[in-house]
Amino acid sequence: MKRILPFIAILFIVSITKAQTPDWSSKVAAIIYDNCTNCHHDGGIGPFPLMGYDDAVAHSANIQSYVLAGKMPPWPPDPICSQPLVGDRRLSDDDINTINDWVNGGMPEGDISQAPAPPTVFSNTQLAQIDQTVQLPTYTVRLQTDEYRTFVVHSGYNATHFLNQIEVIPGNAAIVHHVLIYFDSTDASANLDAADSLPGFSTNGTNSPSDYCVLIGGWAPGTEPEMLPSNMAYRIPPNSDFVVEVHYAPNNLGKTDSTKINLKFCDQQNPRLMSVAPILFHYWPSLINGPLVIPANTVKTFDEKSVGFTFNNTGDYSLFSALPHMHLIGKSISVYMTSPNNADTTRLVCIPDWNFHWQLGYVFQHMIHFPAGSGYTLRAEATYDNTTNNPNNPNNPPITVSLGESTLDEMMVVFFTYLNYQTGDENIDIGAVGVNEIQNENFSAEIYPNPASDELQISCWLDASNLKMQIMNTSGSVIKSIDAGHQPKGMYLTQLNISDLPNGIYFLEMQSGGEKVMKKFVKAQ
Q1: Predicted confidence (pLDDT) per residue in 345-371, tens digit
Q2: Taking 60 as the threshold, does the pLDDT of residue 2 lie above it?
Q3: What mean pLDDT, rounded, does the chain reach?
Q4: Degrees (nearest 5) of the Cα angle 323, 325, 355?
Q5: 202-227 b/e with 16+ CB inside 10 Å = b?
Q6: CB 24, CB 60: distance < 8 Å
Q7: Which domain holds residue 27?
Q8: What is the average pLDDT across 30-44?
């Protein structure tokens, strides 16, 4: 009997351990489907699919290591030295621990009949509403080196339009290095296009395509659509042309592309006007310790400062977002603001581990008040690693890398989106403008599949109380309301028919017992 008791104790401990280990069906699948599958599917930008249990097991080591390192889902900024930013993609500590415990616990499958269904439909747009699509002509790359080609598409506007959302969809993401979007209210760009027998005209990436172009947006790998608050927009004058410069990466001779840009107009009559500009740039006088040259086998740091940031001479500005840009040997970049005489420093965005393939624009949770002309200065510090220790270094052995527009050259630019300051701007919670997800430790819910086509399945744990649900669009308008009545305590499962919704992004709000949770989902056919 004494020999049997230790054996029973071991079995008891093992059974408890297994019971505590999260399984795929009840915990892990929802995390993967909500945060990973949108990129990790056949035809997606992820290097392998995550469409089910077998996929997750096959790549469990990668999933665990990248999640624990904070590299996936991709969110390069360090929150310690950055402002609070809208759209933070980082997993919660609970989700990270769940994935880690699942892998360490042997990756149990659980009751597969209770697992959420994997997403089966992936939309090629994130906009809930598209008012206009600017389709660039099909172009065949003619250079083996970097090629800059600028295309002109007439807006067709007979009156001023205000753009509230801009989404760039590369026709061939494998060859498009980046995209810059301008408007030109003159015929200058159109005349350059007409003088070239091929679609578009050749540019160099350094200067704007013509003297009358006004920058309004862009795209780089990893960039998401720009969705401004409902009372903000870019002003496009009547009879303007959209002027779009596309940078094609080297070694793509003979490949074709036809990039398009989806636009949504502002719903308000007199929105606040946005501007975008590379306020920090890699030339003197902004580049303090130039020129931007990184000799082979060296690690070198450069500094920039804003110069003459008083474009409209209208007073102070509110900084809305920042987008840092470097190339392959970039190691880190920090963007910040200093007060007069450098008495105080306000950290804006810092990226300690630069990744060329994830160049995002970062919207500040609260706009930053920039008192123009009063001694405040925007600054950036960037470090470049031109040694064999840099796994992204394209040259082995390393060679001297200098400033240039080629992918193999280097750059140091920070684009800012800004608007004229109004009292109280710094107190506006940009993340709460319109609709955003709401997490709630006391009330959690899962929705799947996501994206969904005809039906949305919902699961949550409820205390005994009334349950109300509503579906809203990204502007906060209620599309559907559902009163589920009084529900008993326990697991709640239901399905919502969404077949009548247009394709786009929506939010499901659930309220029960004074608690509320908001979950984002995509409707796609």
Answers
A1: 999 999 999 998 888 889 998 999 998
A2: no
A3: 87
A4: 105
A5: ebebeebbbebbbbbbbbbbebebbb
A6: no
A7: 20-76+83-114
A8: 82
Per mean pLDDT, which range of 321-325, 452-456, 461-465 is the poorest? 461-465
Report the pLDDT value the prediction gives residue 16, as an integer from 0 to 100.
43
Q: Cβ-count burial of 441 within 10 angstroms (0-12 exposed, 13-18 middle, 19+ buried)? A: exposed
Instruction: Give 304's pLDDT tier (boundaries 50, 70, 90).
Output: very high
The reported pLDDT for the residue numbered 402 is 97
Pairing of strands 232-236, 272-273: parallel
Total number of domains in the chain = 4
Q: Residue 244 maps to which CATH number?
A: 2.60.120.310
DSSP 8-state class, residue 410:
B
- Give the ranges where 385-447 is alpha helix by DSSP (H): none
Closest CA to 262 of 235, 222, 224, 229: 224
The DSSP code for 85 is B
Alpha carbon distances (Å) from 139 to 155, 294, 388:
20, 34, 37
Buried b (16+ CB within 10 A) or exposed e, 450-460: bbbbeebbbbb
Residue 92 CA: distances (Å) to CA of 88, 253, 279, 358: 10, 44, 34, 20
How far, in Å, CA of 73 to CA of 63, rounded? 10
DSSP string, 475-521: T--EEEEEEEEEE-SEEEEEEEE-TTSPSEEEEEEEEETTEEEEEEE
pLDDT band for 437, please (50, 70, 90 cuts).
low
Six-digit token string for 222? 């990893």
Both 132 and 107 in one domain: the answer is: no
Phi/psi at 15 (nearest 5 deg)?
-65, -40
d(CA 110, CA 108): 6
Kindly state whether residues 130 and 251 are assigned to the same domain. Answer: yes
215 Cβ neighbours under 8 A, 6+ residues apart = 180, 181, 182, 208, 276, 277
